[in-house]
Design a protein that fits this description.
This protein is α+β, with helices and mostly antiparallel strands. It has one domain (about 25-290): Jelly Rolls (Sandwich), CATH 2.60.120.560. The chain is built from 4 helices and 14 strands. It has helices spanning about 5-20, 200-205, 275, 290-310, and strands at about 25, 35-40, 45-55, 70-75, 85-90, 100-105, 120-130, 145-150, 160, 220-230, 230-235, 240-245, 255-265, 280-290. The strands form 2 sheets. Strands 1, 3, 4, 6, 10, 11, 12 and 14 form an 8-stranded antiparallel sheet that branches. It is globular and about 50 Å long.
Amino acid sequence: MNRRSIVGVLGVAVFASVASAALYSENFEVDPTANWTVNDPGLSDVLADFNYDYSGIGVPSAPNGSGTRGLKLTANNSGGVFSGFSVSPNGQSFSGDYKVSFDMWQNYVGPLGPGGSGTTQLSLYGIGTAGNVAIWPGSSPKESLGFGTTLDGGSAFDFRAYSSAAPTSYGDGSPVYFASTRNNTNPYYAVYTAQSAPAAQVGLYPGQTGSTDVGETSFTWRRVVIDVAGGFATWSIDGTPLAKVDLSTVTLGGGNMFFGHSDTNAGSSADPNDYLLNVTLIDNIEVIPEPATVALLAGGSLLVLRRRRR
């Protein structure tokens, strides 16, 4: 094997080694409750279950892991107060260029499409938090960069980004978004096709009929990515970019991440199964060095190898 081949093989090995070194991962199969903080503003009822068996509501195993346990989030099922909350893993802080990825399932009381009682709620997640602050649309000031989508597509603003520069979310037409409007009816979101509830869920809850409207992100596992690179954070779901925020324009409280759930109004659902079905499920979280950084690291290693050879 010639010198060039040896260097190439070593470069691939370095790349694979660095790329596989996750900064953080969690699949919730072993109860991690003690490793998380629940940040509850105390306005209404909230629920966070870090070892929830979601097969109990007929949801299949998430595609990027094994098993059927994950993080369950739900809020304001009985309090009747505009409210929400967030959770963060203890002691985590990420900097530089990195990528947060996770599986997300959004669920709501049927019938699917129009939704049942109290189903216009939000799944939330983001970066740049201190990890000890309750993050939801009504919180102020915002000390993080957050993203979210409604459960049922029942808002005029179903895709949202929040920051210190936009505490009530960046508005329609903002350059941070890849689409001109944020309603699920915008053709840009048509990549999110209509979905039916799993047969197992319909068997348990016969009211889960119909299908989601095009542009809704509920009732199937989605891979959500927040890619922090080059001073920007880009949010995508299933590979479709949704927003890109210049981090130099926002104030962040720390380097941790958060996951949350919020209502969009003061009303609570009248459905007895709301705390089971109006939920956000999170599974298979992974934080890795951003691939561009990994490539540079691998390239740097190759350069060192070449220099030592001479």
